[in-house]
Structure to design on (644 residues):
């Protein structure tokens, strides 16, 4: 399987696993949100969404008569006599229905006859709803006093159930008692009494209230003003009237999703919001748990589909965009569809999808690269796999280290490609040229008029054959320098350079050239391959002899340069121009090749020398000017604390 084919398959598998895992996780935490504590976050998002998406609702049909502080000031301390409530009902004869949010569960021993009078007023009105009170376990419902209960048109339980954070967000249309009896909520009883029951049967599932506005949104009249006739009775004609406490000291107030800065809403106004929702049948709808889980997983699927083909930067933008889209979608559903879908699970899933995918895709790519690098080293070991200075350790698994290793492998592949091109050029041009010359000579000998003397023929064939052997030898040596495993041992550069000078003493003597080894320390220790380094030094000394005129001096030095040793070889030859120095170490490149009297060669010696120096972690520098000689400076890292 190809590199990219294998990586594509692995990435596709990782993507499928990440997609399935994140979607499953999102659906699971959504389904079990009540048990994971996410409900609190959902409530916070719900409150913000509801507060910003509230639309003005027509509340003119509902009126609240408030037992407020001003009424208490006028009528005296609470509770008032029940005959007072009977007098109020006489003022509300034109109302469509009256709901008394007042509990009459005990007889007032001081005025026992008042209950009878209130019952008569309730019966006379004919459309009064009184409250039931459920105990905490909903085992029993406590009705008002029997005369009052019998006189009322309907009864409904008045309990309001806050969420765990104390906020009232919903009402329960019906409750089932332990006796099996179903009792309906107070606002449902009011709607039924006014002959405007809900269009559909509502069960025991809590219904979210779409609050019409902040506290004080409904029309409200003080109790005392209505009782004293200051408010015309005609204002209550065909209205749904709720009578309940509004005073600051009566304790019937609760926080709601629209509460700001800690203010609360009176219980009677919460009932008014519930009644409005019942009449308009516009409760905020919520999907079932399994439906919410599916909805929560959809944004995760959306982002995963995008992550598969996007760059990390665009994937991050997509993840951020989907997070914003979740909020926008939630707001639009609340505003225009009256539907609430919990968003916390979706936010968690989307927030996790990007880093998890980045982790898995990156790990898949890096592991695949690691395998390919291992296969590359097995197929063609590069040097002896010893990391160069600055190259990370093979055991370093960090991203930067693995990217560096990848760059190193790419560099090696480029180098291999370059060597391939050089080999093809060597075979197609450099090796063919002398062979073609030999073939031309043999063809020439077939023609009598162009025959060369045997001695001349042998001389030229010998010359071309030696050139071929020189090319082959130089090419093989360069290839070996680039590929063979080095023998790492402690080497004394002083001794090595001294031996190299001795190798060319006779050759230099023939041309009256003096080789001087001066200004050197007692020892210069480095770590490297002695055979390769010695051949590199010999190449430089050989070139210095070839390109130096007779009766000159070649100077060799070794200089201590802090943590490095500098090996310098200088001649007094013709020098090298700056232009030629740029390609001096390129294989098969020879300076002044066509100049008359230029020494023969194949152009591989300096390439070999640079390769050897580079493999030892060193560098080579050329200092030269035309007509003033050349100096080659080889820099090697010194090995300290070596005992001779």
């Amino acid at each position: 399987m190809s590199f990219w084919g294998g990586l594509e398959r692995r990435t596709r598998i990782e993507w499928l696993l990440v997609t399935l895992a994140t979607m499953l996780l999102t659906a699971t935490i959504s389904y079990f949100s009540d048990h994971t504590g996410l409900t609190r976050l959902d409530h916070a998002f719900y409150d913000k969404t509801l507060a910003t998406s509230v639309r003005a609702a027509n509340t003119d049909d509902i009126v609240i008569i408030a037992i407020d502080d001003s009424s208490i000031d006028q009528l005296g301390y609470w509770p008032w006599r029940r005959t007072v409530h009977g007098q109020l009902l006489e003022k509300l004869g034109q109302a469509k229905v009256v709901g008394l949010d007042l509990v009459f569960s005990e007889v007032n021993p001081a005025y026992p006859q008042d209950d009878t009078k209130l019952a008569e007023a309730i019966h006379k009105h004919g459309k009064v709803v009184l409250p039931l009170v459920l105990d905490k376990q909903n085992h029993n419902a406590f009705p008002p006093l029997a005369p009052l209960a019998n006189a009322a048109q309907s009864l409904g339980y008045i309990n309001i159930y806050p969420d765990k954070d104390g906020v009232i967000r919903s009402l329960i249309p019906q409750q089932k008692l332990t006796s099996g009896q179903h009792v309906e909520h107070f606002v449902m009883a009011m709607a039924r009494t006014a002959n405007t029951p809900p269009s559909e049967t509502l069960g025991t599932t809590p219904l979210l209230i779409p609050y019409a506005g902040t506290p004080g949104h409904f029309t409200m009249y003080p109790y005392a003003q209505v009782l004293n006739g200051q408010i015309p009775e005609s204002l209550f004609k065909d209205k749904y009237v709720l009578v309940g406490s509004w005073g600051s000291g009566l304790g019937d107030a609760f926080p709601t999703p629209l509460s700001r800065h800690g203010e609360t809403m009176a219980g009677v106004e919460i009932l008014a919001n519930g009644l409005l929702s019942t009449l308009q049948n516009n409760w905020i709808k919520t999907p079932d748990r399994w439906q919410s889980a599916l909805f929560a997983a959809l944004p995760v699927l959306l982002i995963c589909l995008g992550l598969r083909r996007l760059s990390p930067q665009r994937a991050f933008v997509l993840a951020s965009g989907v997070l914003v889209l979740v909020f926008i979608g939630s707001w639009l559903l609340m505003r225009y569809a009256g539907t609430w879908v919990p968003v916390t699970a979706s936010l968690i899933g989307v927030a996790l999808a990007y880093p998890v995918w980045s982790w898995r895709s990156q790990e898949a790519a890096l592991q695949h690269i690691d395998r390919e690098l291992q296969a590359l080293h097995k197929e063609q070991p590069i040097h002896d796999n010893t990391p160069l200075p600055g190259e990370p350790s093979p055991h370093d698994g960090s991203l930067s280290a693995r990217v560096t290793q990848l760059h190193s492998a790419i560099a090696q592949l480029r180098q291999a490609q370059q060597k391939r091109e050089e080999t093809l050029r060597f075979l197609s041009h450099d090796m063919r040229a002398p062979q073609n010359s030999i073939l031309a000579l043999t063809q020439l000998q077939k023609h009598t008029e162009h025959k060369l003397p045997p001695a001349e023929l042998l001389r030229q064939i010998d010359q071309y054959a030696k050139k071929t052997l020189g090319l082959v030898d130089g090419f093989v040596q360069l290839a070996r320098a680039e590929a063979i495993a080095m023998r790492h041992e402690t080497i004394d550069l002083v001794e090595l350079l001294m031996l190299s000078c001795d190798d060319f003493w006779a050759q230099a003597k023939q041309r009256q050239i003096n080789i001087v080894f001066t200004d050197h320390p007692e020892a210069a220790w480095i770590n490297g391959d002695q055979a390769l380094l010695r051949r590199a030094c010999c190449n430089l000394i050989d070139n210095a002899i070839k390109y130096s005129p007779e009766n000159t001096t070649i100077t060799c030095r070794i200089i201590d340069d802090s943590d490095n040793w500098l090996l310098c070889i200088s001649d007094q030859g013709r020098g090298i121009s700056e232009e030629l120095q740029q390609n001096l170490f390129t294989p098969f490149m020879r300076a002044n090749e066509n100049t008359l009297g230029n020494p023969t060669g194949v152009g591989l010696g300096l390439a070999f020398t640079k390769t050897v120096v580079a493999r030892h972690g060193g560098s080579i520098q050329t200092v030269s000017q035309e007509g003033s000689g050349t100096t080659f400076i080889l820099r090697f890292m010194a090995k300290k604390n070596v005992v001779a």
Q: What stands out?
A: The first strand starts at residue 62 and ends at 67.
